[in-house]
Amino acid sequence: MKYWPGIFGALLTLVILLICTAAVPLPHVKSILAYDRETDINQPDTTGHPSNDQLAGEWKVQCSCRIYSKGQVAGTINDAEQSLVVVETDSDGSYRLYKFPGGFSEALPRLRKTSETGYAGDGTVRGITTLVRQNVELDNGKITITQTIIDTSSRNTLSELTCTGTRATSELKLARQDPRVEVCGTDNASTTVNKDLARRYKFAREFSDGLAAVATQSSTGDLKWGFADESGRAVIPLIYDVATSFRGGLAAVARRYGKGNNLKWGVVEKLGPQVTPYVNFDAARILGEGFAAVGYVVPGHKGLQWNLINRENTTILHGFEGFACFVNGRARTSFIEGNVIHGGYVNKNGDFVPEEN
């Protein structure tokens, strides 16, 4: 019992402290919470985009590229026209850069904030043999983007692209592009559209490979395309801005980036999954017989280079000059080695067969 007065006194002191604390505002706590939402630009707002974001949006840039050979600068290429770079944010607060009319490369690095004005990220292509590293620096409304491509085995730099510019305040008139998508015919195409399908969706095309491209229209008038089966069930979600018909189990899809008609391409498979992990390629061709090709820019190379892929997104051939349609198990193709063009065919096993002289 002799301890009760001491315990009672301690409890009374604690109650008095709690009452006083509740009555006094805590401005330092408010300032910490305000920073989390208002000043940290990596904190996404309720729409999924970072608040007060300095990087996301459209930039008009001028680019130049240094090409290396055996670790030494072999030449410099300066773009005659301006390019558009669209920066989009992911749900995790990271960034991805899309360049038009030609992209940065086949890689799509995920950039994260590294300093108050800096961002960086990297990705690999050709397995892990080629590293693509991107850095962004902002300075008083100006942007500098640097992309370095490195051969990981020799650690030699292959190319270094630098783009500088400012915010795009109006639509940038880009150079005209050649057709960036092609489908080699159609399989089992029907010229009629299921009436129930036409009533369910805003637009519905004919069936091909058992699926029809269908679209809904948003309140702003934009169409979002996907694919439905004959029962009307959406097999591939309606999230794309452009969609082709199917052939050999594959179709090309595109997403629009920025305010203009700036498209990047990917490939989907008829059972539902998106074959290419991202919709980030400059071009796509559906070749038939279960194969497709995706095209992309390689700094210092004239025109696009192409990868041959199958329905599992296995890269069969990498860095070729193009692929024709598959006919009877083979497709015409070519690649450059040094200054020599090698022409021939690729078969369904992925073997390159040189053309007979």
Q: Can you characterise this structure?
A:
With 357 residues, the protein is mainly beta. The chain has 3 domains: 4-39; 57-167, Calycin beta-barrel core domain (Lipocalin), CATH 2.40.128.20; 181-354, no CATH class. The protein is 11% helix and 47% strand. The protein has helices spanning 4-23, 27-39, 195-200, and strands spanning 57-69, 72-78, 83-89, 95-100, 112-113, 118-125, 130-139, 142-151, 156-167, 181-183, 203-208, 211-217, 223-228, 234-240, 242-243, 250-256, 263-269, 283-288, 291-297, 304-310, 315-320, 322-323, 330-337, 340-347, 352-354. Strands 1, 2, 3, 4, 5, 6, 7, 8 and 9 form a 9-stranded antiparallel sheet that branches. It has a 5-stranded mixed sheet with strand order 10-18-19-20-21, with no helix packed on it. It has a 4-stranded antiparallel sheet with strand order 11-12-13-14, with no helix packed on it. Strand 8 and strand 9 (156-167) form a beta hairpin. The radius of gyration is 27 Å and the shape is globular.
In short:
The protein is mainly beta. Helix content is 11%, strand content 47%.
Write the topology of this structure.
Layout: H1 4-23, H2 27-39, E1 57-69, E2 72-78, E3 83-89, E4 95-100, E5 112-113, E6 118-125, E7 130-139, E8 142-151, E9 156-167, E10 181-183, H3 195-200, E11 203-208, E12 211-217, E13 223-228, E14 234-240, E15 242-243, E16 250-256, E17 263-269, E18 283-288, E19 291-297, E20 304-310, E21 315-320, E22 322-323, E23 330-337, E24 340-347, E25 352-354
